[in-house]
Amino acid sequence: LGIETFYDAFVDETTLTGGVNELVEALYGRAIETQSDQVAIAQNTLINSQNAFNGAQNDFNNAQTSLNNQIASWEGFTGVDYETEFDPGNSFHTSLETFLGIPTAQDTLTDSQAALNTTQDRLDDAQADFDAESARNTLIQNEQANYQAAAAALIAQISSLPALATDPTAFPDFSFFGDQEYILNTPRGFSVYGDSMPTNSNIQFSSVDSEIEARGESNTESFYFSGNLNFTKVPIFESIRLAGGYRRESTELSYERVTGAGPNEGILSATVGESAPIDQSNNLAYMAVIFEITENLKLHISQSNTVAKPTFREIAPFPIYNLSDESLEFGNPGFVFRSDGKFRMWQGGVDDYGEYAPADPAALRDPGLGKNLIVGPDFAGLEIAEVESRDIRLEYFTPLDGLLAVGYFEKDVGAPIERVFAYQPNGIDLNTFINNNNDAELSGFEVELQQNLGIINDWVSQDILPFDWLTIGGNYTKIDAEVERSSFEIRNLATLQGISSSRPLYDQPSFVANAFVSLDIEKTGTLITLSQNWLGEQLERVGGLDDSLSGSADIYWDEFTSINLVIEQALTDHIKLKFSVKNLDSPVRSTFEDAAFYNNMVASDLLTADGEQISTSAVGYKRTSQTVEPSYSISISGSF
């Protein structure tokens, strides 16, 4: 009875038509009808991907050329090799590096490399998709007759397999596209489990949720001049050298979403109501006075103006999950509504907090709208922060290129960019970036030591190892960086007690130190350097309370140390091979919450299961902990 019921439902016994035959025919008709279009789409995607890759390759080449030119200017001014002799503890080196825009050029090159890699991946994917669609088209054209025969064979098998009446697994192997992965290979719009009106829920493997495409653009135009002035023929002043320069820099920076709608972003469907691209020009000057007190003793006094630009991450118009502190992170590209629903209500003229006129752009700047935005109108969008630096440094040069230096520095940062807590969607911290409306002040001192041990050759036996192969060194910088809390973060903090109105500046460690030992075997052209770095506590995220008075404390990175290894080998007089390992010791890095902030936000009457009191300090302030695995790199470079 089971066999007959199955057979009658699918096939006309007289004509052997209908049922499976017609199903296969209909599926093939739809597949053939759409497959040529799929091939054309894949071909267009391949062409567009190739064009995008060519553009990214051109941008990368331009960025590489620009960086090489700036490094050449730096080397011409300092008289040393940038790659091997740049000293991060030398304020003259770092100030000139910043003035010439080398860090910006390096960031641009890194972004260009990432864009090039992305377009290469997309080109590879597009080529693979085109090849697959072409093969699929050929397969469909060739196999229709095969499947008609397979349908007839299926009917014959049904007639000869009585087990099918009670055992569905006895059904013969049958594949829609000739392999066992026919569900995965079913074109969008076809689903053996779907009904006659396909929806997102019954189309199998049709799309990936939360797929967002965004396009970032960064353009920098600048011109600069620099020079030196020596008084070699002027009595009294022959020991003085002046160095200075001027740079005019114009920056355009934007990051806008191309595709991807807010409602598909899960718990966070933030929507950009209006972008606020950066279009800013800055006048940057540099001046230094070098006093050659003696042949080996020099005094540097300098002042410079630089800028700190937002990164693409800081203005990204989409969310990411930040593993370091287990939070969501959304950039600040402009006026960003907390949800697509709030944006639509605002578009309609009415939202949860009042009446607005969407046709009037000024309505976006209404302070009352701030409760619907990730950050209020006063902080929507980022701008470039301006930095003014002053420092004085005394250097004493010892034999065999040794150096002993001490210095003091001050910096004023206007509207520093900081990572801040915004609010908590579904109990998860959402962080973003703002320009603090207060200026930050930094000051500190630095000590640096470097010495080749060949100076002790006359007193120590060299039977085991020539001491002039060894160089030791290190530096220590103490940093005091403080800023007043922004009006964005302090708006609800009045409800807490003991929270200071000032705090450390975001992302500035309390100290930085490193020590190294180098082994330079000149005969073989081998240079091995082992170093250890120390990093003090630094503010990782500024805390706060949202409008519901729920929130999160200031989060700090704990002190951190790591060991690094660099091996350089000269292959010829002009070619060098370099291998490096960072975080060789797999150090652990952790975050913790500010104690005063934490204690104000955690109930003071915490109890154990037995009803005993627990102090908040016993609970602990540790937030996250992670092991930093070693990273390896190898490179080859040449000089001609």
Structure description:
This protein is of the alpha+beta class and 640 residues long. It contains 9 helices and 28 strands. Strand 6 (319-322) and strand 7 (327-330) form a beta hairpin. The longest helix has 60 residues, at 19-78. It is globular.
Radius of gyration (CA) equals: 33 Å
> What's the tally of helices?
9
Per DSSP E runs of 2 or more residues, the count of β-strands stands at 28
> What does the average pLDDT come to?
75
User: What percentage of the residues does DSSP assign to strands (E)?
Assistant: 35-45%
* Distance linking N and C termini: 88 Å
Q: Helical content, roughly?
A: 25-40%
User: What general outline do the C-alpha atoms trace?
Assistant: globular
List low-confidence stretches: 1-13, 16-21, 161-210, 260-267, 350-359, 603-609, 613-620
Structural class: alpha+beta
The main β sheet shows up as: 14 strands, antiparallel
